[in-house]
Design a protein that fits this description.
7-stranded mixed sheet; Beta-barrel_TonB; signal; 22-stranded antiparallel beta barrel; Plug_dom_sf; Maltoporin, Chain A
Length: 935
């Protein structure tokens, strides 16, 4: 199909080399066909345009990865492959345990994974409730190549194509049988991964059929088995950053004279003083570092020519993913520090060391002057085992339709009509949670604890061993429950398209594409009844349910302006516009202009301006309120007296001490959200000098601005803004009488935006020697600016935060990311070496006032209480592999990822593990082998 294009040569070369890696081999689409050669080439679509043409080079920057690239390195998920390309930003993956859900997404330009559109064979792949696509469920074995468009494309494809488009092209016209087996593990002997697949295909002049089954199993690694993640904050003293809920319990009470008693269990049923930080619980070793998965996928596609000008095609996909995240045993937290009421530890509780009531209720305190306020009770429920979050996800997608050719006025017009239906259902079970109503009853008056109720022993101490302690199985059976949640999202669409050449102009043919699409999306999230009722020890969550529909029409034109002139071999104008009418927020029109100027056979200059949009996701629109407990720093710690320069801390008692780093935050959807709007520019050149055969250089500048962005303001931003101004965002914070934050609302709004700018480059050079054939590929992205714009909904003023070169809050934005790949092929041997370079970033570094800041931050403050910073230095991963073709049917590959055992950069602002898994690998060398069979 690509016989006379450099794209075809790139793909063929990759097959010959067994290219270095998907990320290392990202050749630019930079073909220019002669008129004679073009006549012999089939007209095709290339990502970024729906116009079929023989010259596959458009004004859009598109890079291509081949199937062989994907197979050659030790990666079992297409999502992990795409996350490693230089233009990708931080995104969730299977190394995200706390906050992960088993998915892996792609986040081009780092402006949000739901702002990257994912297609399979040019058709929209179904997203989940959040609007992002789980790339884990697309098996690598069905892929022929991946085309990545790094440009806005809503005028062509509609919503979500803001930062770019990933178009996964499956194998076509495959004949025979292919099978492969893969196995790998870390040098520590953990994190085993297996991948097995088999595919069958047959084709003839009338059509083709392809069928594939794939299976992947990934085992976990534990945080306690790596030095960097075995403690809450790497490099700090024992106990630092630990939890206020140790197995022996923390019991912080106040008598009615306001005297505080901060105590812990002594191991014998009594109490002893709480000591900071020694008494805190190290929860880190009990968490997963990388999470387990089991994926089974079945894929089939068929195409049949009914007549010379009419064919039918169908595609079917079924995928099942079983995944799990695990955290340390659940912490039981109750007390007025969390805004709780209804809890009273009765003096008659047979296990209580107190001879008076300890309560969260004022009426009990008023009735008994000897009663104490239960400010904070924390108890790690080791006896209940891990908190386990297990997902069982079934995804089904069907695409079917007709396509054909209409001949009119000696011209061919290509048309297609399609139907798509997709359904994703996720059943989630969560173990280790507590029913807080039953906890209240079990610690209360024994006279009211009857029937199944068993008095609860929070005292007596417990060892740091899963499943052991002073709480009996009978007690656990009464207070624990397994949550059962169900989530679903579905997509249904009809579409029709037509393209062709309208008329001949002096410089060539005026071509067009036009079409119509009607799409419905719906979904729901039905949490467990106890979770929905808000009586769980975990995060409460309300049900989500909603739907919307959209009708769209588009028109795309390719207008040849000049050709065969001095300095202008070809000058083309590309135009596109799309009108979208949504049932929930109304209509939007988005357009695109592109210019392609081929100066000569060596040099092409290109540029585009485009409008783009993103419709709010089902989750953003309809999610019910739920709880989150993100780690936050209250700037009003120490009250008004300790923070005289912060007006928002006025009225807070000087005795206020933030009891826990995790503060309750309420998040939720907003049915009145509007669409996000975006505008982007890209311009650059492609240089392929005939004088240096095999050399190709591309350079593209990008500039993207997103307005009316759907987001939450950010819990830490809300706290900081209120403290600093005394007005802004303070209405979103609820504090208790003691000054502690009881609740903080951080819901979804159309507020602010983002901008990002920089440039991409790619240098590829292929050459032959008597010692073998070589390919060198150097691919990179430099971020000049990455700005987040936050608008204060109270004052309507905006603040810009430049994130370029920064790290923190689960987002790493290195200015430079680059991959250098060298591939060698000689007879039956191939070797690959890939260097993945991640540039330095800087993070805010506030660890413990000034003491630990001075010891651990690379740039501590010179002033008491000043801002400290920490630099995450430049670093690189080295991946190597060696392949040998035993015969025409059998190939064996051995490889090592992270050859030099490079550790991730230590981060003190990341959420867990002291490094960011969205950008860095978990520590350790990863060894793997792969066997490929073809018949």
């Amino acid at each position: 199909m690509f016989t006379n294009s450099k794209l075809a040569k790139s793909v063929k070369l990759a097959c010959a080399f067994g290219a270095a890696s998907t990320i290392g081999f990202t050749g630019a689409v930079n073909a220019q066909e002669t008129e004679e050669a073009a006549d012999a080439v089939e007209k095709i679509e290339v990502t970024g345009s729906r116009i079929r043409r023989t010259d596959i080079e458009g004004a859009n920057p598109v890079t291509v990865m081949s199937r062989v690239d994907i197979e050659k390195f030790g990666i079992t998920s297409i999502g992990d492959v795409l996350q490693a390309i230089p233009s990708a930003g931080s995104a969730i993956n299977t190394n995200n345990n706390n906050g992960g859900n088993g998915t892996t997404t792609i986040n081009i330009r780092g402006i949000g994974s739901n702002r990257t559109l994912v297609l399979v064979n040019g058709k929209r792949w179904a997203p989940g409730l959040t609007g992002s696509v789980d790339l884990n469920n697309i098996p690598a074995s069905i892929i022929e190549r991946i085309e990545v468009l790094k440009d806005g494309a809503s005028a062509v494809y509609g919503s979500d194509a803001v930062a770019g488009v990933v178009n996964i092209i499956t194998r076509q016209d495959f004949e025979g049988v292919h099978a492969s087996g893969y196995i790998g593990q870390y040098d520590e002997g953990d994190g085993n991964k297996e991948q097995w697949d088999i595919g069958f295909g047959t084709s003839n002049d009338k059509g083709n059929v392809y069928f594939n089954i794939s299976y992947v199993e990934e085992e976990p690694t534990l945080a306690g088995d790596r030095e960097i993640s075995a403690v809450p904050t790497f490099g700090t003293p024992e106990g630092f950053g630990g939890s206020s809920a140790p197995p022996q319990g923390r019991f912080w009470t106040f008598d009615q004279a306001d005297n505080g008693f901060n105590e812990q269990g002594d191991g014998n049923g009594g109490l002893e003083p709480w000591v900071e930080p020694d008494s805190r619980f190290n929860f880190a070793p009990f968490n997963y570092l990388s999470t387990p998965q089991e994926r089974t996928n079945i894929y089939t596609q068929a195409r049949y020519e009914l007549t010379d000008n009419l064919s039918v095609n169908v595609t079917g996909f079924y995928g099942n993913r079983k995944s799990e995240q695990a955290l340390a045993p659940t912490p039981l937290f109750i007390g007025t520090a969390f805004g709780d009421t209804g809890f009273t530890l009765s003096a008659d509780n047979p296990f209580s060391p107190y001879d008076f009531d300890v309560t969260t209720d004022q009426d009990v305190l008023d009735a008994d002057p000897n009663a104490r306020e239960m400010f904070l009770f924390g108890r790690r429920m080791m006896e209940a085992g891990f908190r386990s979050f297990k997902q069982n996800v079934d995804q089904f997608q069907f695409n079917g339709g007709f396509e054909g050719v209409i001949e009119f006025a000696d011209r061919e017009f290509f048309w297609d009509a399609n139907y798509t239906y997709a359904d994703i259902t996720q059943n989630t079970s969560t173990d280790g949670l507590l029913n807080m109503d039953r906890v209240a009853q079990a610690i209360g008056d024994p006279a009211n604890c009857t029937g199944e109720c068993t008095p609860l022993n929070l005292f007596g101490g417990a060892p740091n061993v899963i499943g052991e302690g002073t709480i009996t199985q009978e007690m656990l059976d009464y207070i624990t429950f397994t949550a059962q949640d169900e989530l679903n999202s579905s997509l249904e669409s009809y579409s029709a398209n037509i393209s062709g050449e309208l008329l001949e102009l002096p410089a060539g043919y005026l071509a067009f594409a036009s079409g119509y699409e009607k799409r419905w999306q719906s979904g729901y999230d039905q949490p467990d009844a106890i979770i929905a009722a808000g009586i769980t020890s975990g995060n409460a969550r309300q049900p989500t349910s909603g739907a919307f529909s959209v009708e769209e029409v588009y028109l795309e034109l390719a207008v040849p302006l000049l050709s065969d002139m001095p300095g202008v071999e070809q000058l083309d104008l590309e135009l596109a516009t799309r009108y979208s009418d949504y049932s929930n927020f109304g209509d939007t029109t988005n357009s695109k202009i592109g210019l392609k100027w081929r100066i000569n056979d060596d040099l092409l200059v290109r540029g585009t301006w485009s409008e783009a949009f993103r419709a709010p996701s089902l989750d953003e629109l309809f999610s019910g309120n739920s709880d989150s407990f993100a780690p936050l720093t209250d700037p009003c710690n120490g009250g008004a007296a300790g923070n005289p320069e912060l007006p928002g801390c006025a009225g807070i008692p000087a005795s206020y001490e933030q009891p826990n780093t995790q503060i309750r935050t309420t998040v939720g959807g907003n049915a009145n959200l509007e669409a996000e709007e975006a505008e982007s520019f890209t311009y650059g050149f492609v240089y392929s000098p005939e004088a240096v055969e095999g050399l190709s250089i591309t350079f593209d500048i990008f500039d993207i601005e997103v307005d009316n962005a759907v987001s939450s303001v950010g819990a830490q931003t809300i706290l900081n803004a209120c403290a600093q101004t005394g007005v802004n965002l303070c209405s979103l914070i609820e504090r208790g009488a003691g000054g502690n934050v009881v609740d903080l609302f951080n819901g979804q709004v159309n507020l602010g935006g983002q901008t990002t700018s920089g440039f991409d480059y790619n240098v590829a050079y292929n050459f032959e020697t008597e010692y073998g054939d070589f390919r060198v590929n150097w691919d990179g992205t430099y971020v000049d600016e990455r700005t987040t714009i936050v608008v204060d909904p109270v004052t309507n003023t905006s603040t810009e935060f430049n994130d370029a070169g920064l790290a923190g809050d689960r987002d790493v934005v290195p200015r430079l990311r680059t991959n250098l790949a060298v591939t060698w092929a000689y007879d039956d041997w191939t070797a690959n070496w890939l260097v993945r370079f991640i540039g330095h970033t800087t993070e805010e570094c506030s660890i413990d006032g000034d003491t630990l800041d001075q010891q651990l931050c690379s740039d501590p403050s010179d002033e008491l209480g000043g801002d400290s910073f920490n630099e995450l230095e430049d670093m690189a991963y080295h991946d190597v592999s060696l392949g040998y073709a035993v015969n025409d049917n059998l190939r064996i590959t051995l490889g090592v990822n992270n050859l030099f055992d490079t550790d991730p950069e230590v981060s003190y602002s990341t959420f867990a593990n002291s490094f960011d898994p969205s950008m860095y690998e978990i520590p350790g060398q990863f060894f793997y082998s792969r066997v490929n069979l073809n018949f």
